[in-house]
Amino acid sequence: SGWGWLGFNRQEQRLQIATCANQDPLQATTGLSPIFGIDVWEHAYYLQYKNVRADYVKAIFQIANWKKADELLQKAKQ
């Protein structure tokens, strides 16, 4: 449980996947610039998806604002 992230590593100039427990901030704990995050705590999906977290994650990818994610990536690359 926690958060799943796609972040940009400025030192290595590449995207990385990371997780953060609880509400720990991505940048402060990993040094990554946040591009896209998913709340994977049960409270985020249980009422609609029960124990099928994978269906919740698939649904998030369908409604994600990928244009905004790209804007954040371009900004992080500067």
Short description:
With 78 residues, this protein is an alpha+beta fold. Helix content is 46%, strand content 27%. A three-stranded antiparallel beta sheet has the order 2-1-3.
Task: Give a structural overview.
The protein is α+β, with helices and mostly antiparallel strands and 78 residues long. The protein has one domain: Iron/manganese superoxide dismutase, C-terminal domain (minor pseudopilin epsh fold, 3-Layer(bab) Sandwich). 46% of the residues lie in helices and 27% in strands. The protein has helices spanning 26-30, 42-49, 53-63, 66-77, and strands at residues 3-9, 14-20, 33-39. A three-stranded antiparallel β-sheet has the order 2-1-3. The radius of gyration is 13 Å and the shape is globular. The N and C termini lie far apart (32 Å). InterPro entries: Fe/Mn_Superoxide_Dismutase, Mn/Fe_SOD_BS, Mn/Fe_SOD_C, SOD_C_sf. Residues 1-71 form the Manganese/iron superoxide dismutase C-terminal domain. Keywords: Metal-binding, Oxidoreductase. Belongs to the iron/manganese superoxide dismutase family.
Mind sketching the topology for me?
Layout (H helix, E strand, L loop, with lengths): L2 E7 L4 E7 L5 H5 L2 E7 L2 H8 L3 H11 L2 H12 L1
Antiparallel strand pairs: 1-2, 1-3
> Residue-averaged pLDDT, rounded?
94
Largest sheet: 3 strands, antiparallel
User: Rounded to an integer, what's the Rg over CA atoms?
Assistant: 13 Å
The total beta strand count reads 3
Enzyme class: oxidoreductase
Keywords: Metal-binding, Oxidoreductase
Family: Belongs to the iron/manganese superoxide dismutase family.
GO molecular function: manganese ion binding; superoxide dismutase activity
